Amino acid sequence: MSDSSRDDSNRGDSERDEPGHGGPTAPLIKMVNQIGANNLHHGDDAQAAELVATHLKKFWARSMKRQIIDYADTDGSELSPVSRLAIARLKTMSSTVKDWEETSDAG
Hints:
Largest sheet: none
Strand content: under 5%
Radius of gyration: 16 Å
Oligomer: single chain
Number of helices: 6
Number of strands: 0
Order of helices and strands: HHHHHH
Structural class: mainly alpha
Shape: globular
């Protein structure tokens, strides 16, 4: 019984660690911020953002990219500065959203 109650408390802890935004975009916000933090050692924010944008383009599914771009355009308050730059860069990697959707390496 203590194992199941421990599982419930762990689930509660992980939910409290999610960004304040909540909702289905919260895991994406958390991921992009973590990717940004993991790339800060590559230089300044612009260099880190370029690496993050490239990662998103290559490895995130189209639906994930759409969701994080929509979030950045409508709110973006939970995004780190590097994440904001990366998402802006992702949007400019092709001349239109349709282009990056069609050329995406992931889903």
